[in-house]
């Protein structure tokens, strides 16, 4: 991305992080919990810690740039929309880490493992409180919009966007788990999972919310927005899957091969199985779903992929989808402001060139 866009993105991130801290400073006062409860404030503390540990805040950036498609004036409704987007993300992270049994998130303990440490002899309590913590984050994501000081019609439209995004994400989680029970899911299934699980709440919803906040009617360009989000979601998920095997573990701050060990039928696994010969395929299949798979075996699978040209073919596919998404955004020039259109043209290419 251009230096000017990166500076804008850094400004959005810095301002939002301050806003998020202020939100958590006051949220407990508005939550109707009995005074004797110790678990409720503890739950809010864990949500706060996870939420404020960061991430790239790219959804917030997309939200603000979507509003800039319409105007460069300050748009008040963006604060509530940004809080809602990131609270929905927190909800997803809490439940993702429970589903995947992940001990670490954003450089700290996952909510699930924090509760497991808190209740080492009460596993069902730890599980139940994790589910409820995620549920609370979802409720807060909708509540912050319902309480936003914006016109009623705008507020209703924003709540509808986020409710639909949440429902689509749940369906995405379901079909993501279902995918891994298929012997060899085809490419369209992988695209569908990427769309529902990621694109609709990470790209489409922030786009819609930003346009709504700026007074635009996203329903008038619904097909274009959905296609753009789908394409960005696909190339972004491909990049995640690629990095899981072919990325630099030091740069990413986590080990490679997690998807293989977890038995995920990712884009990378599909590409490996398609390119390998019978002997190599058996090596990949033996590693797939083996939680005790050694680093040496992961390295052997990676070597098979490199020998068969999988990194290059995956990069070519990622860039093809990124270019298609950029072409969709380029068509917005006749309707919206140039500098924001440029951001949405460059976003897909950034998503496939990132190192982590």
UniProtKB/TrEMBL annotation:
Origin superkingdom: Bacteria
A biological process term (GO) from this entry: isoprenoid biosynthetic process
Q: What class of enzyme is it?
A: transferase
Q: Per UniProt, what is one GO molecular function of this protein?
A: metal ion binding
Residues passing through the membrane, by range: none
Q: Which Pfam families match?
A: polyprenyl_synt
Could you tell me which InterPro entries the record lists for this protein? Answer: Isoprenoid_synthase_dom_sf, Polyprenyl_synt, Polyprenyl_synt_CS
- Cofactor(s) named in the record: Mg(2+)
Keyword Transferase set for record: yes
Q: What is its EC number?
A: 2.5.1.1, 2.5.1.10, 2.5.1.29
Query: Do the record's keywords include Membrane?
Result: no
The UniProt similarity line reads:
Belongs to the FPP/GGPP synthase family.
Name of this protein: Geranylgeranyl diphosphate synthase type I
Organismal lineage? Bacteria, Bacillati, Actinomycetota, Actinomycetes, Kitasatosporales
């Amino acid at each position: 991305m251009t230096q000017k866009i990166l500076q804008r993105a850094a400004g959005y991130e810095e301002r939002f992080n301050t806003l998020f801290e202020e939100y958590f400073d006051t949220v407990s006062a508005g939550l109707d919990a009995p005074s004797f409860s110790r678990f409720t404030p503890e739950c809010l503390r864990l949500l706060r810690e996870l939420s404020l540990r960061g991430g790239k805040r790219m959804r917030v950036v997309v939200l603000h740039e979507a509003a800039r498609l319409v105007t460069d004036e300050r748009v008040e409704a963006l604060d509530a929309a940004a809080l809602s987007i990131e609270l929905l993300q927190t909800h997803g992270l809490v439940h993702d880490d429970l589903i995947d049994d992940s001990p670490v998130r954003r450089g700290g303990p996952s909510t699930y493992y924090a509760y497991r440490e808190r209740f080492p002899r009460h596993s069902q309590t730890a599980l139940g409180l994790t589910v409820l913590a995620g549920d609370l984050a979802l409720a807060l994501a909708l509540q912050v919009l319902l309480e936003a000081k914006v016109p009623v019609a705008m507020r209703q439209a924003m709540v509808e966007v986020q409710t639909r995004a949440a429902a689509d994400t749940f369906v995405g989680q379901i079909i993501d788990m279902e995918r891994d029970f298929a012997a060899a899911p085809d490419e369209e299934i992988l695209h569908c999972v990427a769309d529902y699980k990621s694109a609709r709440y990470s790209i489409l919803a922030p786009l819609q919310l930003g346009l709504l906040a700026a007074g635009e009617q996203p329903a008038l360009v619904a097909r274009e927005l959905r296609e753009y989000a789908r394409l960005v979601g696909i190339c972004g998920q491909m990049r995640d899957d690629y990095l899981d095997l072919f990325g630099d573990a030091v740069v990413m701050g986590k080990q490679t091969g997690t998807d293989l060990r977890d038995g995920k039928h990712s884009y990378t696994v599909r590409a490996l199985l398609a390119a390998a010969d019978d002997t190599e395929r058996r090596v990949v299949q033996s590693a797939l779903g083996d939680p005790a798979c050694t680093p040496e075996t992961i390295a052997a699978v990676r070597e098979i992929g490199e020998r068969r040209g999988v990194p290059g073919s995956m990069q070519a596919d990622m860039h093809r989808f990124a270019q298609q998404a950029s072409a969709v955004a380029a068509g917005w020039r006749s309707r919206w402001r140039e500098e924001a259109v440029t951001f949405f043209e460059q976003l897909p290419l950034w998503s496939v060139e990132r190192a982590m």
